[in-house]
Amino acid sequence: MQPLPPEEARRDGAEDAQWSRPECQAWTGTLLLGTGLLYCARVSVPVCAISMSQDFGWNKKEAGVVLSSFFWGYCLTQVVGGHLGDRIGGEKVILLSASAWGFITAATPLLARLSSAHLVLMTFSRILTGLLQGVYFPALTSLLSQKVRESERAFTYSAVGAGSQFGTLVTGAVGSLLLDRYGWPSVFYLSGGLTLLWVCYVHRYLLSEKDLILALGVLVRGLRVSRRTKVPWRQLFRKPSVWAAISAQLSSACALFILLSWLPTFFKETFPSSKGWVFNVVPWLVAIPAGLFSGFLSDHLINQGYRTITVRKFMQVMGLGLSSVFALCLGHTSSFCKSVVFASASIGLQTFNHSGISVNIQDLAPSCAGFLFGVANTAGALAGVVGVCLGGYLIETTGSWTSMFSLVAAVSSLGLCIFLLFGEAQRVDLSPTHEDL
Q: How far apart are CA 359 and CA 379, in angstroms?
């Protein structure tokens, strides 16, 4: 009996390592909750920004520094998180990072009051939180590309990605109530404490202590891991489809980060008599079923025989194109009800990106999907830093929110055009060329 060629052997090994249906269901629910808790911690500052500004005397530009500082740290660990996820398992990377960001989030109110330098301390806290959360989505992308069947990948990713809307929804609803009754520190205590409880559950029921000890050992010897496992840089970055994926991910991440950071302030200042739980809850309540529907629709269309790239591009037309139209509408209405509808439509349609570009990265290079997603999300985080700060600057200097929403639409449209022109779904050939040998 002849041995299998190396490529076929790797493919068979990957199929054997995939989750069974019960395992996939258990992990999907757990990761959905984990993603929700990640966003609970992430949006705590945007939800509390006005109260914190009043307590500490921040103006719009200073608040913009704190809001954007999360992304300063977030962009630095994307590639590392994806690379480690590809090599040691994304679930281990996720759990270790969650235990750290949960602790930092719970300790943020105490850290902010260590001295009178509130702006510096809060900026430091958010940078640290960004560093710890930066590994999450690249590691998640790596995990799902290795463990989930290709025909079920879009729905699974969309279901897990719905946790971002779920977390924002919980923080918007419960956080608004806590904010009114107990003050802004209670929002941080809740999100950080729940994250630590989730870590305990995953450690007890889904991951063994031996796995975590091995993962910690690998993290300590991270540089040695990088030398042993060569990433095919040249083959990846020679392909227009890879750059198209990076551009689309950059645009979608930047647009979402701007909206996440400034929407609560927009509603609070434009409609001061409105209830916070309405605009902090309704858009994300719409986004959860929209994200699940987009994943179901994507897998269904592919199973019906539509070309994969056609489906991915259609999802991006919805996630980047149509969503930016509704974002523009937000800057041209004075009605609270219409604003909630437009915000809900824009946020809801952005969930279609999970079934478009996020899965397209796994189409192109499943063996190093975490690394590639890390590169794309690093670009998105860097753009987020600039976009959130620029949004605050435009609002402060023009006195109008229209300029900020126009920025969201411009960024989204540029990424969509590039992806429509150059996007592909065919797996990239990563075998070394004669020039590389």
A: 17
Locate 266 and state its tokens.
């927009």
The alpha carbons of the chain give a radius of gyration, in whole angstroms, of: 21
The full length of the chain comes to 437
Scan for tokens 């902090």, then name that residue.
280
- Distance CA(361)–CA(358), nearest Å, equals 6
**21-422, CATH topology level:** Growth Hormone; Chain: A; (1.20.1250)
Mean pLDDT of the chain: 82
Structural domain boundaries in the chain: 21-422
Count of beta carbons in the 10 Å neighbourhood of residue 155: 24
Q: Which residue has the tokens 């945007």?
A: 46
Q: What is the pLDDT of residues 239-263, one digit of tens each?
A: 898 899 989 988 998 898 888 778 8
Residue with tokens 């719409």: 286
For the stretch 328-364, pLDDT in tens is 998 888 888 899 999 999 999 998 998 888 888 888 8
| Residue among 255, 233, 289 at smallest CA distance from 430 | 233
Mind listing the pLDDT tens digit for each residue in 170-229?
887 788 788 888 889 999 999 999 999 999 888 877 766 555 555 555 555 554 544 445
